[in-house]
Specification:
By secondary structure, this protein is an alpha+beta fold. Helix content is 25%, strand content 30%. Strands 10, 11, 12, 13, 14, 15, 16, 18 and 20 form a nine-stranded antiparallel beta sheet that branches. The protein has a five-stranded parallel beta sheet with strand order 3-2-1-4-5, with helices on both faces.
Length: 385
Amino acid sequence: MYQKTTICLLGGGQLGRMLLQAGVDLNIEFRVLDHNANAPCASFTNQFVCGSLTDFETVYQFGKNAEIITIEIENVNTNALRCLEQEGVRVFPQPHLIELIQDKRLQKQFYEQNHFPTAPFVLTEKKEDLKNYPDFFPAVHKCGKGGYDGKGVRILETFEDWCKGFELPSVLEKKISIYKEISVIVARNSNGEIKAFPVVECAYHPTQNLVDFLIMPAEIANKLEKRAQEIAIELIQKLELVGILAVEMFIDTQENIFINEVAPRPHNSGHQTIEGNFTSQYAQHLRAILNLPLGNPQLRAPSAMINLLGEPSHEGEAAYIGLEKVLQLDQTYVHLYGKHQTKPYRKMGHITVLGTNRQQLLEKIHFIKGLIKVVSAPNRQVINP
């Protein structure tokens, strides 16, 4: 028998905001903890707590009377979550898995030890260590902890670039000749039921190393789509993770698939599932952590997602130029994240478009990208929603 549920959510960003929106349909109430009093979730719940996600006592006190705890960001205090789990609180994803995924070094070792395909790598403690691996170049140097949206990643094209590496415990990976960058989102509930979403294809911003737009389904051979989904399913089974797992992968020019990184929570590569799929990634995550039957993850229609990023020269109160024109378009859905302040390349929202085929989606993507800009308020030409 299903009853009204309260979920404690660590993190109050846009992923949490969309999770709260999906929870309304299941009579879920949320308590949210975030360090930012103006976080996107703050106005969506009357149980918002402002406090540090990485402080043991703050997280412990926030969750000690919880039924279920989940996350929308990995940078949380897992020691507190371990204590809460031992005291009977259901924590999903499980704290030991959050710890594994918080550290790219541990991630890579896990893939290697369990025979999952990943780019060749070595672990480094400081910049000087890179000089010991001349055969690894061209390479990618990634900080073990703390990187996101392209931060904490440096591409080193030649051995002479070793001096551009990090003075922190990091991973040095051989650079892959990338044909496609893809993602598979997969869900698992406590009963062990697993369902994978179709493969999504990621197009990255030319300079910022973050997603510019996504298209689902990916334009890849059926055998590659099947293999990518199999990898994601095998990985969530091996981890025994409860919830959503986003598995970012590379396909190289020889059609080999490599796991890049994973995220144990709703993910940027699944935003378009809100309109484009029978079950969104957010609804699926809630079903999984509540141990409800998982929903149908298949496509309603081919879809795409465009990230709305702050313009490079603008910082201040956010305004949206061209929003009215976008709202006039059919099968186009605007999601603004409630962030009052814009800054260069900050994720301020996204737009989902549906279509009948890939070419139509690409035309819509490029048309919309030319219509709408996120700027600072002194330059606004329309109302600020």
